[in-house]
Amino acid sequence: MTSLIFRGTGDSMGVPRVYCECAVCEEARSAGVNRRLRSSVQIDDPETGVIWIDCGTDWAKQMEAAALRTVDTLLITHAHFDHIGGLVEWADACRWLRKKGRAYAPSEVIQEILDRFPWLSNQIEFHSFDQPIMLGKWRAFSWRVHHGKNGYAYAFHFEHTESGYKWAYCSDSIGLTEQQQKPLYELDLLVLGTSFYEEPFAYETRSVYDVKEAIALTEKWRPKQIFLTHMSHDIDLNKRYELPENMHFAKTGMTITI
């Protein structure tokens, strides 16, 4: 049995935003329903140990919330700081624990990381995720996706070799080509990034789909379940939105068994 735990569901700025006094940010500071750390998912599987997707600037807080001292494997979607800012802390943890971390990322992502932080390779073994890999009984592959004005990111597809269960993680994308959309069809579960309910800014300035666009796309892709992540302070979890029955906003600490 494999569990997915949402450790972070926020966009690059997180919620609350330090400068902002909107209703969502103020609620996040008090009741905390809308408090969102940077996007990441913990995968617990008896055969693989703890796998973590992305290692952003809130990684240490997320680890404390999970009561964990280290992870076994990291998968990295792209080299933006909200997805790799915690690698410095993970490397330091590995140094103190006298163990090597293991991270998988596409080769161009690894190169970007090591260009900025070359010393990370002292404590972390970076492995190419250009070809499919096995994580226990999960066959995983990555593919490049458009990330709008922010360039590119990667999405991950997982399929269980025994049950056939298929799910994908695509946190940072917009304007996907038909080829980039192909691995997102007919999934059992899709985790998709949507920063706004309906983003008001010019399309060419954007980097992530909004909820209304996700609804239209998933009608075509037909996943059985959809959880939305990478949410900005535009999304208020105390509010009722018009979502399909199989679409939900992910919440911090939420666990899904797959």
Give a brief rundown of this model.
21% of the residues lie in helices and 28% in strands.
Supply the key terms:
7-stranded mixed beta sheet
What does this structure look like?
This protein is an alpha/beta fold and 258 residues long. 21% of the residues lie in helices and 28% in strands. It contains seven helices and 14 strands. A hairpin with a 5-residue loop joins strand 8 and strand 9. The longest helix is centred in the middle third of the chain and has 11 residues. The termini are close together. The model has no long low-confidence stretch (mean pLDDT 97).
Which secondary structure elements does this structure contain, and how are they paired or packed?
Blueprint: E1 3-8, H1 23-29, E2 40-45, E3 49-53, H2 59-66, E4 73-75, H3 81-84, H4 87-97, E5 101-105, H5 107-116, E6 124-128, E7 133-135, E8 138-146, E9 152-160, E10 166-170, H6 178-181, E11 189-193, H7 211-221, E12 225-229, E13 247-249, E14 255-257
Parallel strand pairs: 3-4, 4-5, 5-6, 10-11, 11-12, 12-13
Antiparallel strand pairs: 1-2, 1-14, 2-3, 7-8, 8-9, 9-10
